[in-house]
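debug: dumping io for the single-chain case to check the tokenizer round-trip. Nothing else runs in this session.
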Amino acid sequence: MGIKPVCSRGFSTLEITVALGLMALLAIAAASLVKNIGSQQGAIIAKDEASEFVGALSLWMGTEKGCQASLVGKSLAIGGSAPVIIDGFQGYGVSKELNSGSTAMQANYRVSPTVKIKALTLRDKGVPASVMRIESVNYRRVVAQLEIEMETKTEAGEMGQRKRYVEVPVLLHESNDTIVKCAGEPTLSDLCSAVGSILDPATGMCRPLVNCTTQGTFMSLSCSPEGYGCYNASGLPLENAITHAQSCPAGSVPSQTGIFNYSHQVECGKKCVLTIADTLTFNICMRCN
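debug: decoded output
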């Protein structure tokens, strides 16, 4: 019995057409995947550029020179905000070639070919103002907040970025909203002035404007409810050793140095215990000329 030959059948036109169609779909999917990967990489690079720019600007504005150049003379309305122009910055993100030779950063300033400042706003952060006295002049110390809104350009188009913030403490004029000084690091002269002294250039130390001496101390004791007696938890005399009373000698004034709150219990009747709230106030007597 002979061996039958094996016949191989070729692909039909329909099978070839289907195979070519599948290969085309795979090619399209691969191309789309490569495009998405490239777009994602571009977005990551643009985001890194935006972060690097904000970091560099923050470091620069944290210096006295940078803060003074950027903010002094500008208006900072308490509780408000307004567009602002930042000029003088020389760090990462300054691109004269992309901005017609300008270095004045503001809305629509292009930091790089893929990163653009959409909006640049100076605002009051909302921290309550505190008063600082420097060289006999009162200033209001607040926190200025630079709000930076950016857009990044990718193959998928323009994409908005989350808002970034740079914060700097500044001093405002006593009677208007003009920024007159940056208050990041006070000088030794500022510190001396803050404690009522002046800087002695010969010694480099703070020198008092007036001479003060202590005239003893005393304590004041009160409690609530009244009528049951207060308890002196300190165990020390309440009277001033000089006056032998809870007062200062003539010519000196009391200054409060601390308060101690505590409680004790008293019997107020049969099976009745009442809690008394005691307050012990510490005072020092100062005489200054």
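debug: round-trip ok. Residues 48-184 form one domain.
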